[in-house]
Design brief:
This is GNAT family N-acetyltransferase. By secondary structure, the protein is of the alpha+beta class. The protein has one domain (about 1-160): Aminopeptidase (3-Layer(aba) Sandwich). It has helices at about 20-35, 40-45, 75-80, 105-120, 135-140, and strands at about 1-5, 10-15, 55-60, 65-70, 90-95, 125-130, 145-150, 155-160. The two termini are about 20 Å apart.
Length: about 160
């Protein structure tokens, strides 16, 4: 999947992070956005779910990482979603670098996670959205449910989209 929202924006590609260098780029983006920018403690940013998750990475044509996200599936997703359904994936750790915001990278990453979920036979994707990002996910077809709750000291809402 590639994106060029307008001619003034450099081309980028979104792909599943299969090799160690891609996975390290995913973790570097998360560190920049969540740990450095949003002050999430590093010891809770990386977790046991990372090992088996599907990670997606957006990179500029020159190789600079722009964003990342991950999909939990199976038992890991069932533990995270609202009803314990193993057919529902869990989108998380969606992060776009400050320089790449507003270029369509976040939406491309969400769609890549949804593609990975479909490929695994999942019927829906759940996520925990920071409340300031609710509109972004709503525009992509997600619906909020349940009460607001804190995660790493940041207000969130659960959301879901059927695939």
């Amino acid at each position: 999947m590639s994106g060029t929202p307008n001619p003034a924006v450099p081309a980028y590609q979104v792909r599943v992070a299969e090799d160690p260098a891609d996975r390290e780029a995913c973790f570097a983006v998360r560190k920049d956005v969540f740990v450095a920018e949003q002050k999430v403690p590093e010891d809770i940013e990386y977790d046991a779910y990372d090992a088996d998750a599907v990670h997606v990475l957006a990179v500029r044509a020159d190789g600079v990482p722009l964003g990342t996200g991950r999909l939990l599936h199976g038992a890991a997703a069932a533990a995270k979603n609202g009803d314990g359904d193993p057919a529902v994936g869990s989108l998380g750790r969606l992060a776009v670098t400050a320089a790449a915001r507003g270029l369509g990278v976040g939406a491309a990453l969400v769609r890549a996670v949804e593609e990975a979920a479909r490929a695994r036979g999942l019927t829906a994707v759940d996520l925990h959205a920071q409340t300031h990002a609710l509109g972004f996910y709503e525009r992509l077809g997600y619906q909020a449910y349940g009460p607001e709750f804190p995660d790493a000291g940041i207000p969130h809402r659960a959301m879901r989209r059927a695939l």
